[in-house]
Amino acid sequence: MFKAQTEKRVAVFFANGLEECEALVLTDLLFRAGVPCDKVSITDNLAVTSSHEVTVVCDRTIADDDFDFDAYDMLVLPGGMPGTKNLRACEPLCDAVRAFATSGRTVAAICAAPSILAELGLLEGKSATSNPNFQHVLSEHGARVQQGAVVTDGDLMTSKGLGTAVELGLELVRHFLGDDAVEDVKRKIVYQS
């Protein structure tokens, strides 16, 4: 049963071809911590099919008449291919990501998705990471590529991939609820560091 521990809200964006485990690990950890989180389809269909042909039913779509990016305190971009390309091709989402990043609101991206932040010009002069196959995109757009599992620079959080999704999820929890909440979630998931 979900019990909100904060009034802050997170939107995790689902595109066809995404890496479903990255997206679901992040939403799971936020849920366990009590951080309200919506699974948002970037299409007009609630059902999104991952790169591994797993269908996930989202809570909302950006096509909903009442959908408002500004109702959220954080935007999260999972990776996967061609999911990342589909996220990048979604102009309303990219406009919102740019607006969040330039106004000091938090954006997180994992795996290939940090390349979107780079291509939008949001990582120039910033420390970031991504899947190793996309780190050249970050550096070509002026990012200082780091090798940590999760790299936070101001209000931008980036992570390497599925193998680092738990670490990113814990950082998202820490962002909203602090260290005690992270330790509580670690205990709930039997986290082995």
Automatic annotation (TrEMBL):
Residues 8-174 form the DJ-1/PfpI domain. InterPro entries: Class_I_gatase-like, DJ-1, DJ-1/PfpI, Prot/Nucl_acid_deglycase. It comes from the Bacteria. SUPFAM superfamilies: Class I glutamine amidotransferase-like. CDD domains: GATase1_DJ-1. Pfam families: DJ-1_PfpI. GO terms for cellular component: cytoplasm. This is 4-methyl-5(B-hydroxyethyl)-thiazole monophosphate biosynthesis. It comes from Parafannyhessea umbonata.
